[in-house]
Amino acid sequence: MKNRTLWVYVIGLAAVVAVILYFRFGTEEKPPPAKEAAASAPAAQPSRLHPLAPPPEGFPPLPALNESDGLVQELLGKLLDRQKDLKLFITENFIRRIVVTVDNLPKPRLPRKYLPVRSPRGKFLAREGTSQTFTIDQKNYRRYSPYVTLAEHFDTEKIVAFYTGLYPLFQEAYRELGYPDGYFNDRLIEVIDHLLKAPEVSEPVVLTKSVVGYTFEDPKLEALSSGQKILLRIGASNASVVRQKLGDIRNALTGQAPVAGATH
Fold this sequence. Notes:
- 39% of the residues are buried.
- The chain has one domain.
- Strands 1-2-3-4 form a 4-stranded antiparallel beta sheet.
- A hairpin with a 4-residue loop joins strand 1 and strand 2.
- It has helices at residues 3-18, 34-39, 69-79, 83-86, 94-104, 145-153, 156-165, 167-176, 184-196, 219-222, 226-233, 236-254; strands spanning 126-128, 133-136, 206-210, 213-216.
- The chain is built from 12 helices and 4 strands; from the N terminus they run H-H-H-H-H-E-E-H-H-H-H-E-E-H-H-H.
- By secondary structure, the chain is an alpha+beta fold.
- Mean pLDDT is 78; it is low at 1-11 and 18-46.
């Protein structure tokens, strides 16, 4: 398999993860240590719920997890022509970053220290409303355009081929995180189902301001997980693209659509 083709898989998966990352309303949250992120993890599944297909034929031999950064860095340098795309990613411990990010999306906070991509440019934008309330400025949604565009334009089959080919490394990183008997693919499907259950709200989204930034005025929205809040913050149009891509990936991995009424 040519390096250029392989990196399409890498960039595609990273882009999908990138658009569902947690960026708090104008705050600088101190990231928890790795052990803290693992300590709050739910109980591991005792058996595989979603077995994976074999890796694609001709997929290159895998390096050790601790040596996988070199492959990522090499392929990035050879494939990406635009420096602004290259700068979106953090390639150090890339596989581990993906695993930690996915595992924490259903939780209240996402440890920013372990994200596989850099934060969007600029600051969070809000418009002042009435009675000390604010709304998300439409211009804020543009900050996520580079991530959403990458996710939208990469082929789902290629993303899945990359994922299944490198799955042993994802699985190793997942067990290293504190799930000796769990399967990362089961967790990934569970997290996708959780994200797809995020409510769709009418815009503009109303906020209130606190000493640390902005929060949703509706307590039900504020109580959502970090991942579900992201789908509200990036705007309805961007969220629609992300939802479609997540559903496509789930279908490709399992052969099934998300379970109606799932509340993971």
